Amino acid sequence: MLKNVEFSVNETDYFKVNYGPENEINKTHQLRSVVKAVDQGQISRESYRKLAAVEANLPRENSVSNERIAITDNMNQFIKILLVDMNGKDKLEEASGSDESEFRNPEITQEAVDIMGIGIYRSIKDILNYIIPHLKEKKVLRLSDPTIHLRISGDGRNVGRKIKHVMVTFMILNHKERHHHADYHYTTILYPGTENYNTLEFILKPFLNELRLLKENGLEVAGILWNFELYFSSDWKFLVICLGLNGPTSKYFCPWCSCSKHQHGDLSKDWRIEKNMEQITARYKDVNGHIHPSLINMIAIDHIIFDELYVLLRITDRLWELVLAEIKERDLFNDLTRKVIMKEMQRLKVSFCFWENKESHNWEYTSLMGDDKEKVLRFFNLKLLFRPSRAQLIRNLWDQFYQIYCAIRDNTTDPGQLKIQALDWLSLFLKPSQGDPNDPRTFIQGLYLPSHVTPYIHALVYHGWELLEKHKKWGLKAFSCSAVKKKNYNQVSTFFRKTLKNGGNPLKRKSAIQEIIEYENRTLYFTYNPLPESKKIKKLRIK
Ligand SMILES: [Zn+2]
User: Fold this and answer.
1) Ligand 1 center to 401 CA (angstroms)
2) Model pLDDT for residues 71-121, shown as the tens digit of each residue
3) Is 520 within 8 Å of 122 (Cβ atoms)?
4) Which residues are CB-contacts of 69 (< 8 A; sequence separation ≥ 6)?
5) Rounded to whole angstroms, how far apart are CA atoms 239 and 255?
6) What percent of the chain has pLDDT over 90?
7) For residue 507, how far is its CA from the centre of ligand 1 (angstroms)?
8) What is the rounded CA–CA span in Å between residue 143 and residue 227?
9) How far is the CA of 457 from the centre of ligand 1 (A)?
10) Alpha-carbon dihedral of residues 277, 282, 283, 289, nearest 10 degrees?
11) What is the pLDDT of residue 19?
12) 304 forms bridges with which residues in the sheet?
């Protein structure tokens, strides 16, 4: 018997047990609506108890709690949660400790330290068995085109010095309207620890086996044999680890081609997507830059798509660094300049400041957040820092980069046009100086050096147009990792603190990652079993 058939029988039984006459059904709906609201609003048991005490129409806290447990237990039967013992597999000293954590909360770090050595795994097959019948019913998946386009992503977020909360997710690209919704990026793996090859190789093993089988054999659900086309998208770090490739500063850095970092200045080269996963799998040592076997060898190289958001963020960082470096080079990085920059940031409503590192005496500054970067890139008045012609040159470079960024996000962009536009932009970035530097009358200062070109710049310029051409069906925006990053951030900030707050005996309580994955199972339940709007729930007015 197919698993999905079992599933519908169980589901009906579950409802039969809980559903009685009509007002009983309403009551159950109301209770589940409350469980959903409490879950999504992250309302603690204590807070809910207080709410229920002042509003008699709300169900009692213990019935909410029991219903929550019932839904959790029921879902955990469909989608099993496996704890993975990672002890001895993950060594903290291998991690690079340079990245700074966004979380300065010691509770969060403590929780991560406490549960180091345990990972969690939800089978992708279980999740697919659960959601495919729903997606078929909603006509997101169709009998006429039984190919499911699966996008895999991974993300590691610092939760303390050297410790990361690492998650691996997948989403169904066919579900077009949900590409950017965190609830539709389904978590399969979670662990607090380090983001490195050995750890990922160990924890990803069962997941990658499942992916391979899905690709080779398909999956039979709801009486249909579904085929799978696999894609991968993540930030640079996670991608190169999974590919077994050297880091971004090494000689051969590119996931798609064999460009070396010494060739950034050669504008006559036409770098194309030329690597081939079969070759890498057969003999990775023969492919420049590859130091380990590829973990994601079931995904084609041209199905690995960069994260367009990271292209914006990282290239903007580089452009901003280069501006500050130029000011420093001219010895103009003084109190007055710093004041001018901070005032301009204030005008743009971007929180930004400089401070002097007491030990190194270097000036440090706030690293800009996502939306702020876009604001600075588009609107920062460079004339405050440079003479008009120089300011205009840099402004042109910034504006043209922003235009390319918008173009790669737009499905109607002509890839051929984008290629020309991107190469023109790189030529401008590398514009050489002209004339004699000692003679101000003849000297025209150029822009930047080939060594300033970053892997992201190379990827955008040479591979952006080709990836756009190949994946026009979805558009490159469909491969943005912002929903996954948001999910990771929310999970850490909510659950790593909450488990400690709800506390009790630390040996008996569930770890944050267990709480997270059970929450994800309940979210699946609520997402795919929408509750009717209950008219009986009175609206609470909070004054
Ligand atoms: Zn390349």
Assistant:
1) 18
2) 999 999 999 999 888 876 666 544 444 445 556 666 667 766 677 778 899
3) yes
4) none
5) 8
6) 60
7) 49
8) 11
9) 10
10) 10
11) 44
12) 232
Six-digit token pair at 239? Answer: 């991608």
In the reported structure, the alpha carbon of residue 221 is separated from the centroid of ligand 1 by a whole-number distance in angstroms of 39
Interatomic CA distance for residues 10 and 257, integer angstroms:
50
Q: Strand pairing partners for 231?
A: 151
Cα distances (Å, whole numbers) of residue 36 to 163, 184, 446, 527, 542:
31, 16, 59, 10, 20
Give the whole-angstrom CA distance, residue 334 versus residue 449.
25
Position 531 pLDDT exceeds 80: no
Supply angle C-alpha 23, 26, 30, rounded to 5. 140
Distance CA 303, CA 467 (A): 8
What is this structure's pTM? 0.87
Answer whether 354's CB lies under 8 Å from 363's CB: yes
CA of 456 relative to ligand 1 center, distance in Å: 10
Q: Which range has highest mean pLDDT (178-182, 378-382, 490-494, 529-533)?
A: 378-382
| Dihedral sign for Cα atoms in the order 26, 28, 29, 35 | positive
Distance, CA 408 to ligand 1 centroid (Å)? 17
CA pair distance 320, 63, nearest whole angstrom: 55
Are the C-beta atoms of residues 452 and 318 closer than 8 Å to each other?
A: yes
CB of 257 within 8 A of CB of 462? yes
